[in-house]
Amino acid sequence: MTTPISERPTAPPEFNPTGTAALRDPASMYMQARTDNPVFWSPDLHTWIVTRRDDVDAVLMDWESFSCLGNGGSIPVPEGFAEVVPSSLMSKIMISMDPPEHTEARRVAQRGFLKPAIDALVPEIEARAHRIIDGFAASGAVDLMEEYCLELTTQTLMALLGLGDEDEQLMRTLRDDHFAILASGREPMEEPRRTQVWDRYARAQLRLRALVEERREGSGNDIITTMATARNRAGGPALSAERIAMHLTEFSAAGTDTTAQAIANAILFLSASPEQLAQAQADSSLWPRVIEETVRRRPSAPFASRQATRDVKISGVSVAKGDMLWLALASANTDPSHVKEPGEWNIHRENPEDHYAFTKGRHACLGQPLGRAQGAAALRVLFSRLPSLRAVPDAPQDFLPLAMLPIRRNLAVEWNSGDAQAQGPGQAS
């Protein structure tokens, strides 16, 4: 039975996912809630918020009781674009499918993200990082978010997809458009932005579908060819061009922005912890730990969402069949019942990968090998070239304030301009 909204546990006053405090530190919203109201209702988002690690774990691991089907079906597609991007297609994004359909799509996509393939890509990521740094090393200050974090992740994505310069702007724009469209089910877009976003999005889908068809008989090792040439048991294409294009769209967003966010957040943490920065600079094996602790303390995507398929109770709270739940990953990662000194940023934790930044279970992030490898490589090269680099203290932080996926827009940094001459451009790490 559905609990009347007036009787549902209410959100604490500090719960404001698009407020300044939450954008800077999502975990700050849950310290009291985990004790007082571990599962509460957000009337603004029309969803339950789940805060405790044990509850988050239970939901993520029970796909039969907590479905992903509601994640794409609630996205409103404007009438003028429904022919190209019908609602039925939006419901086929990776985060909105359950087994067995999700299993087949993931099987096809995962071949492009296997760890050996990603590890082999690291020298290319490092070489691109050096070339990007060459362009601004002598300046002494830069907005690192645009000039390095997003630039590097975008270039890496272009290499993974086997795309040339002619598609670069399309992929850069598609990243933000996809996040905006995902959020529109809960945070509607206003005109004229709504039409502008959907127009670009539809044209991008058509371009990606054409690329898929061009590579159906290809022999390349890029992700588009890998997915386009995959065959089902009957010998036909495993996935349609429309489905592959939609999955490529997901990769363009998750594979660029979330990793760029992690790199930027790591620089903020390192700037506030000079002792741990010095340790990582002295021992390059610590850079993967820097990334792990960063995404534990401040996951790039602060929520994962599910829909209850039956009436259930979570921490004593009645959740009705059909209700949406947002799992607060930032809260689960800082739950003091599982993490010592959860608010501290410590790269020497005993189990550095024990967090939910990449979620868990059947929907664990496909691209996590890439995110981990690229994040560590980006930091390793950056601080080898510009060892004195630090975030500018008290610089304004600009975000695209989406509750589900807040996007950092800037990161002001500065360094001693002599670093560039001391290190030498293009030096191998």
UniProtKB/TrEMBL annotation:
A UniProt-annotated Pfam family: p450
InterPro entries: Cyt_P450 (IPR001128), Cyt_P450_B (IPR002397), Cyt_P450_sf (IPR036396)
Record Gene3D superfamilies: Cytochrome P450 (1.10.630.10)
Superkingdom to which the source organism belongs: Bacteria
Family: Belongs to the cytochrome P450 family.
Record's protein name: Cytochrome P450
